[in-house]
Amino acid sequence: MILKADELVDLNRAVIQPVHLPSRPTNISVSVIRIDKIHAIISGNKWFKLKYNLENALLQNKQHIVTFGGAWSNHIVATAYLCKEAGLTCTGYIRGEKPAVFSATLRDAERLNMELRFVPREGYRNKEELIKFAGKDFPGSYIIPEGGQNDFGIRGAMEIWELIPANQFTHIVCAVGTGTTMAGLILNSPHDHQITGIPVLKINPEHNDLKTFLSAVCCDHTNYKLFYDYHFGGYAKFNMELIAFMNQLYNESSIPTDIVYTGKLFYAVNDLISKNYYEANSKILLLHSGGFQGNRSLPPATLGY
Questions:
Q1: Counting Cβ atoms within 10 Å, is residue 160 exposed (0-12), middle (13-18) or buried (19+)?
Q2: CA 99 to CA 191: how far, in whole Å?
Q3: pLDDT digit string, tens, across residues 207-244
Q4: Cα–Cα separations (whole angstroms), residue 37 to 16, 43, 206, 223
Q5: Pairing of strands 29-33, 16-18
Q6: In the predicted model, what is the mean pLDDT of residues 257-270?
Q7: Up-side HSE of residue 126: CA atoms within 13 Å toward CB?
Q8: What's the pLDDT at 7?
Q9: CA 269, 292, 66, 219: dihedral to nearest 10 degrees?
């Protein structure tokens, strides 16, 4: 079985719509491409980063998939779902000690038949050693790095451009975790388009693995920039200012966002506009990368959607 987009996701649902931001720009247009709408579980960039990984595993006649993520990981649930659809078994190495009560995300992954193995945070930090360890645990399995960060994930992310009309936008902006989606956008971008990344985790702007990764993969491209000041304290961290912004955005544009990725993305673009970062007549397109697992960690009624 080879996974095909038209059998699992509906790319026609990836509509582009205007965004009404609190900054109220008058000489700048802001739109969003809603790839979050292509599927309820393999939402947004998850499909693009996983499709060629799963296809490659099937072509190699692999029967088992191993991957990695946190307790509220969109990637974990998406991988579990795709493996079940493809008839493969799978294991997820989860960051942190095994909790007394599983998160809603981990319960969903288990219901989708993913085996969960928990790794203390200190051991999880060394991704290369963790992958080697998983390979010894499951010899002959197909290993997908966290967030689909490999050549197959990048190849899939490059195809997001097929959903973006040519020459209609000057800036493409995305949230950044592993950098896989941003790398795909950069590699397939027209050189007169600026690709902007909003890292959602707290990292050193001068020396970091993200910058090293993008520099190595996108060495022939200079049309991209990272803004490091919109992490709200770190990965999956947030405050009530961000929550208020997300609720206002939804009330005015009917666009749901999440506390981990897209909420910070929209907040950052709104703030950059208010600080006059973008030139007049800029046409900005935000990539709604989907994935709402992080919101499930919030108390009820925190968000109005």
A1: buried
A2: 47
A3: 899 999 999 999 989 999 999 999 999 999 999 999 99
A4: 11, 7, 35, 28
A5: antiparallel
A6: 98
A7: 7
A8: 74
A9: -10
pTM over 0.90: yes
Q: Which two tokens stand for residue 293?
A: 């697992």
Phi, psi for residue 154 in degrees, rounded to 5 = -65, -45
Residues ≥6 apart with Cβ < 8 Å to 218: 183, 186, 187, 224
Q: Could you give the CA distance from residue 285 to residue 291 in angstroms, rounded to a whole number?
A: 18
Residue 212, classified by CB atoms within 10 Å of its CB into exposed (0-12), middle (13-18) or buried (19+), is exposed
Phi, psi angles (nearest 5°) of residue 281: 75, 10
101-129 per-position pLDDT tens digit:
999 999 999 999 999 999 999 999 998 99
**Residue type, position 303, single letter:** L
For residue 163, which of 28, 5, 9, 34 has the smallest C-alpha distance? 34
140 phi-psi bin (left φ>0, alpha ψ -120 to 50, beta other): left
CA dist., res. 124 & res. 22, Å (int): 39
**Which residue's entry shows tokens 């997820």?**
92
Least confident residue range of 148-152, 181-185, 203-207, 246-250 = 203-207
Which DSSP helix (H) or strand (E) runs through 70?
none
> What per-residue confidence (pLDDT) applies to 5?
53
| Pick from 178, 184, 177, 1: nearest CA to 83 | 1
